[in-house]
Amino acid sequence: MTILLHRTNTRSLTTTAVINLLVVHGIFLLTVPFRITYYVKRKWSFGFPFCKIISVSIHIHIYLAFIFYVAMLIIRYISYFKQKDKIEFYRKLHSVVASAAVWIIIILVMFPLVYLQYGNGEDNKFTEKCFHFHKAINKPYVRGLNYFVVVVIVGIVCLLLAVQIFIIVKIVKKLKKSALDHQEFWAQLKSLFFILVMVICFFPYHMFRFYYIQYKEECYYYNEIFLGITALSCVDLLSFAGQTYFQKVLKHMTCTLRCTY
């Protein structure tokens, strides 16, 4: 993916968002072996501070990935409705500065804030357990925040899905049978794919969150399973590598059907 993106226009806002999303996925994947080691050995051997870092990383990955998904889709929608091929920075340096500013905020503000608040009041600091950070949910403001985040994410994804379906239907009506021959149609299918990634990977965890808040003690391992499903979003960028092949196959099938009938 790094090689493919290096060959594209790095001034594009969409490409810049994709590169940052790739970095988010890459950093998160570095934490996965520690989780696997813990569940295989049933023992945490890396200390409580590092346990908090690994535990909070999957949550940060969810919401950073979600933010970059939304940013990419909004950029694509603006480009479509304003009839522009691409929305770009004036110079490559501007994209670098914008990305650096985002990561400075994440590293110096977002991560320390989440790390300091995450796991406060837990009594397992000197045990060999890890990822048992659920007692904070007993606090009313934490429960309220959880409900708010779930409603916001589900609402935003549903809104984006409605807009995307509207755009695809409009393009199909305009191009009709020749839709498969136009890059504009395939670009919108790629946007739809990112929305489906959010629905498949993020919805199960957030919808289960309603139940988990009420019965957190009994549902700890189920919560871990749904968290694991969110990690599948890391395969999202395969759409860039697989789109060309899928496009050729679908066009060939369509052509075969036309020639047959």
Summarize the structure.
With 261 residues, this protein is mainly alpha-helical. It is built from 9 helices and no strands.
Tell me what the structure shows.
By secondary structure, the chain is mostly helical. The chain has a single domain (2-121, 140-242), classed as Rhodopsin 7-helix transmembrane proteins (Rhopdopsin 7-helix transmembrane proteins). 74% of the residues lie in helices and 0% in strands. The chain is built from nine helices and no strands. It has helices at 2-6, 13-29, 32-41, 48-81, 92-117, 140-175, 183-214, 220-230, 238-260. Helix 7 (183-214) runs antiparallel to helix 8. The chain is globular, with a radius of gyration of 21 Å. The mean pLDDT is 80.
Low-confidence stretches: none
What is the level-2 CATH architecture name?
Up-down Bundle
User: Proportion of β residues?
Assistant: under 5%
Shape: globular
CATH class, anyone?
Mainly Alpha
- Helical content stands at over 70%
Cα-to-Cα separation, first versus last residue: 40 Å
From N to C, what is the helix and strand string? HHHHHHHHH
Global structural class: mainly alpha
* Count of runs of 4 or more consecutive helical residues: 9
User: Measured on Cα atoms, how large is the radius of gyration?
Assistant: 21 Å
Organism: Staurois parvus
Subcellular location: Membrane
InterPro entries: GP183-like, GPCR_Rhodpsn, GPCR_Rhodpsn_7TM
Protein name: G-protein coupled receptors family 1 profile domain-containing protein
